[in-house]
Design a protein that fits this description.
By secondary structure, the protein is an alpha/beta fold. It is built from 10 helices and 6 strands. It has 2 domains: about 5-20 and about 95-225, Rossmann fold, CATH 3.40.50.1000; about 20-95. β4, α9 and β5 form a beta-alpha-beta unit.
Length: about 230
């Protein structure tokens, strides 16, 4: 039996795992802050380390880096809304690529008709734009987006909702994340947790369990599994 057949439900994060859209989020924050008079000189790696740690780490990081930003706008939801408006414009005009190995994995799951679901913090409109740019993503029939749950990752609500909706009793479930924030959500569910991240030391950064399979890319994971 192929490794793929060992699981009956596959759960996927979206940004940074299936598609390389994290760079667009990064640029959207730079542009939002620039419009308010702040120059964010973080590298992309630094941005990801801060943004992916917890649900409040980016808010705390930006207010700490720019103390006067809080005085200008203490409601981070307003800043996030401004950023999302910029992100949608950038996303519409930007190239969005699948991450290495994603196309092959999704095609195999589709061919075998194995249940699969995206569980993302992105909105419906963001997902629709991304799917229009990468039709392979349309082979995933089920999507849990930000409007479908209340508490964001690392709360497991979104993943538990997907499991409740799509798993049958006795199903083996596997979930894939690229961030510590998302992984900590997965670890609070019944799913086998897989971290896809090129950093060697990522598992030492806020991961509360050693029950994690770590691969640098989906492509390398598939090669190890002889797929």
């Amino acid at each position: 039996m192929d490794w793929i057949d060992s699981f009956q439900l596959y759960l996927f994060d979206l940004d940074g795992l299936l598609v390389n859209s994290e760079m667009i989020h990064y640029q959207a924050y730079i542009d939002m802050l620039d419009r308010r008079g702040f120059k964010l000189n973080w590298s992309f790696l630094k941005f990801c380390e801060v943004a992916h740690f917890s649900d409040v780490s980016l808010k705390e990081g930006l207010y700490s880096f720019f103390p006067s930003l809080y005085n200008q706008e203490p409601n981070f939801n307003i800043l996030r809304k401004e950023k999302n408006e910029i992100f949608l414009k950038l996303l519409s005009s930007s190239k969005v690529d699948l991450m290495n190995g994603v196309k092959k994995l999704l095609e195999e799951l589709d061919k075998k008709n194995i249940k699969r679901c995206v569980v993302t913090n992105s909105s419906n409109i963001m997902c629709d734009i991304i799917k229009s740019k990468q039709p392979t993503l349309k082979t995933i029939p089920n999507w849990i987006t930000r409007l479908d749950y209340i508490n964001p990752k690392p709360d497991p609500e979104c993943y538990n909702k997907a499991i409740t909706l799509f798993a049958k009793k006795g199903d083996r479930i596997i979930g894939f994340e690229d961030s510590t924030r998302g992984l900590n959500a997965l670890l609070k569910t019944t799913a086998t947790a897989v971290l896809i991240n090129p950093k060697e030391d990522i598992l030492s950064q806020g991961i509360r369990s050693n029950k994690v399979y770590h691969y640098k890319s989906i492509d390398l994971m598939l090669k190890e599994k002889n797929i």
